[in-house]
Amino acid sequence: MYGFIEQATGKEHLALVYGQLKENEPPLIRLHSECLTGDALFSARCDCGFQLARAMQNIVEAGNGVLFYLRQEGRGIGLINKIRAYHLQDEGADTVEANEALGFAADMRDYSFCRGMLSFLNIKSVKLMTNNPRKVKALVKAGINISERVPLQEGNNPHNQGYLKTKAKKLGHMFDSSFID
User: Fold this and answer.
1) In which residues is GTP bound (predicted)?
2) Higher-scoring residue by pLDDT: 24, 14
């Protein structure tokens, strides 16, 4: 486990390394934004906890890899604002509409600081577990080669189908059509 402090925000982030990373082989990685409700409280409103569990399982099955646990709760709006957004969602707003009603962008997360974390671990190329095109673009912009994008489609349930459809329609998340239908 390695801890990092993002200088611009003071936020603390983690890199959990499993196994021995191989110098010339891109490791399987996950950039996972903190989600207290999904990760620790097992909320079914999102897919975060399900994705976290699957990502860790995939890394173990691969024999090595890195889980980057990023302190960007609620797509970067923080826990209290996420709770406010939940109330708006309970009144009919989708996740994007709720964030925007609170005065935020649909997704406030920033992945640029991950470059330093990857550099510290001497990682130049990765197999990235994600459905989020913004994560792909951020790593490419940071000079990290993505040798493979590994879909991470977990946690579809009756409580989050609208949430998943909003991620696909409004945020461009890459899901197989069978996953969200």
Assistant:
1) 30-34, 51, 73-75, 95, 130, 135
2) 14
